[in-house]
Amino acid sequence: QVQLRESGGRSVQPGDSLRLSCAASAGTLSTYVIAWFRQAPGKEREFVGAIRWSHGGTYYNQFAKGRFTITRENAENTIYLQLRSLQPEDTAVYYCTAGLIEVYGPYNEPSQYAYWGQGTQVTVSS
User: Fold this and answer.
1) How far apart are CA 109 and CA 111, in angstroms?
2) Which helix (H) or strand (E) holds 34?
3) Best CA proximity match to 18, nearest among 96, 94, 70, 86
């Protein structure tokens, strides 16, 4: 059983940066992949990126490469999503999720993840 709690979402202006946090409550995350998804109004949930806890390897959706960065803090069981150069199209609820994913994935399928947080709202507007 893994419990996840996101925080850090807020309203920002285009071009701003923001860091989201995901606090995980679990005995150990060593076998899990922790991912971030986002969902904008009227759209399907979209894969942002993921990190394999055991070795810190990361995997990103194409739109996130170079702008978004996922890191982890082992001692705190916390995962971060650093967002840069935010644009209005990045407006969404951002979700943290955990799953047992095979080495070769897929990482981008929501159905592969068993545990989800409640989400945190990011709004980008001028």
Assistant:
1) 5
2) strand 33-39
3) 86
Point out which residues pair with 115 in neighbouring strands. Answer: 98
- DSSP, collapsed to helix, strand or coil, labels residue 72 as strand
The mean of the pLDDT values for the chain is: 95
Q: Over 80: is that where the pLDDT of 72 sits? A: yes
Residue 61: predicted pLDDT: 97
Q: Up-side HSE of residue 81: CA atoms within 13 Å toward CB?
A: 31
Counts of helices then strands in the chain (DSSP H, E): 0, 11
Six-digit token string for 122: 């990011």
DSSP readout, 81-121? Answer: EEE-S--GGG-EEEEEEEE---TT---S-GGG--EE---EE
Tokens of 46: 């979209």
